Every structure is written in C-alpha cells, then in structure tokens.
Amino acid sequence: MAITLGTNVPAHSARTKLNSVVGNLTTTMARLSSGAKINRAGDDAAGLVISQNMEATVRGSRQAMSNIQNAKAYLAVAEDGMVSIGEHFQRINDLLTNMANDTNDVSSRTASAREIIERLDEIDRLAKVTNFNGRTMLDGNIDPETGETRPIVIQMGSSSDENSTLDISSALTKCFVSSFGATLPENLNPDSENFDPTNANCRTYMGIVQAAIGTLATRRGLLGAYENRLDSSYDNMTIRIESLETAKSNYVDTDIAKEATNLTQNQILEQVNIAMLSQANSLQSMALSLLGG
Fold first, then answer.
1. For residue 36, what are the β-bridge partners?
2. What DSSP assignment string belongs to 3-16?
3. Nearest 10 degrees: CA dihedral of 117, 122, 123, 126?
4. CA angle 189, 192, 193 (to 5 degrees)
5. pLDDT over 70 (residue 59)
6. pLDDT tens digit string along 144-155?
7. Quick check: 16 and 269 in contact, CB under 8 A?
8. Measured distance CA(161)–CA(155) in Å, rounded
9. In whole angstroms, how far apart are CA 238 and each of 64, 70, 126, 190?
10. How far apart are the first and last CA of the chain?
11. Distance (Å, rounded) from C-alpha 50 to C-alpha 252?
C-alpha cells in the first residue's frame, strides 16, 4: 500500500466502520433503556406498521369489551323494569282469581278492582320512567321525529363491519298495559256504568292478563339471549386480545438477552475501531521519517 499525504484511506475506512458500530451501539442502548425494539421508524419500518395495526385492534377490542359491559348493565336495568311489571301482572292475576270466586261479595270485588287499576297505572308509569343514562327502555324506543323504533346498536368488536355490532332494540318493545292488550275492560271498572264483577268477566280478563304474563316472559327470555351473546363475545374478545398482545410483543418488545449480547459486542468493536482509527491517523507520520523528518 502506498504511503501518501493526500487521502488517508485507512482512516476513512476505520471511521466509517466506527460510525456504523456507534450507530448499532446507540440502537442497542435505546432498546435496553426503553424495553422497546422499535424506538423510531427506521429501526423496523415494516414492523412498525404491523405493530401499530395490532395496537389499534387491541385498543379497539378493549373499548369494545367496555361497551359490552355497559350493554349488559343496560339490559339488566331493562330486565329489572320488566320484573317489576311482571310482579304487578302476577298480583293482578291473583286478584282476578280471587274475584272470580263466588264467596266474595260486591264490596270486596270492588276493592280488588280498584287495586287492579292502581297496579295497571303503575305498569304504565314503569314503562315510561325505566331508563339508562336518560334513555327510556320500555316505551317502545320510539324516535319522536320519525315515530319509528330506534336501533340500539352495541359496538362489540374492533372493526367497522356489521359483524362487530349487535342491535338489541328488538328486546325492548313497549311494555305499556295497552301494548299487551291488557287494558281494563269497562265491566271491571268500578267507576264505569257497565261495572259487572261477575265470574265470567273476571275469568275473561284473567286470560288476557295471563297472556300478558307469558308475552313479558318471552321478552325477558330474549333479553337473556342477548346477555348470553354479549358474554360470549366478551370471552372471545379476551382471548383475542391475549393472542394479539403476544404477536405484537414479537415486533415491539426488546429481547434483553439478545441486546445485552449485542451491547457487549458493539462496545468491544467500538474500542477496536477507535484503536484502528488512531493507528490509521499515525500512518502519515511515516512519510516524515522517509523524508528524514
């Protein structure tokens, strides 16, 4: 190799290798100090894109799980309202069964009829006031502007497609007395001129009330079906998040053992290249000795 005073090729070569080692050492130290494999896009551009997409899915899934919990609370409040309405219908059925018995006189039947009226009014009140966060639940969920039933859509997944949603509005139909066809007939209303507490009238209305009890039970069953579906979705989401977190870890989490080895290796290479750069810088001094300097 020629001895020159112009370009110190060995020094340039040693400096280039030293810069590379210092860059690797900086990356390794950043990974060890942060615990993250990707601290800047240049560390792994493809891995960054993949990991960020996974992160979006994980975070969306966690929010979906929160949505599911809120939806279950929503359905629980609705069912509590239905339970109360069902208890009133059951009591009304008891009163009618008693009224249909001929051992009761007119005054006792009248008193029972008045209790029935109060309980029917309470059913309608419950249908109006049962709500969750100010949104009524047992009044048919009617949009005041369109007059149509509003959907109650639960976002129970992290994606934007329909498979990630569930509309539970079908379980929250009207629970007014009239919606069950159980309005008190005039012949059992003590304030009506047609009041007649006879056995036949009591039994006829009893059948209507019992049908209302069955309809209400069917609606509660649908609530239960939705609750079970939400539970299943919640469990699946938990498993999915665990799998995604594991996969994301392969892209973003530092392998401490590997990086510790890299740290030692790069530190040694750094010292070696500093020594080589020093030697390369001293080569040109040999020219002086050749010139008798």
1. 253
2. --SS--HHHHHHHH
3. 170
4. 135
5. yes
6. 778 777 788 888
7. no
8. 10
9. 10, 16, 36, 58
10. 21
11. 10
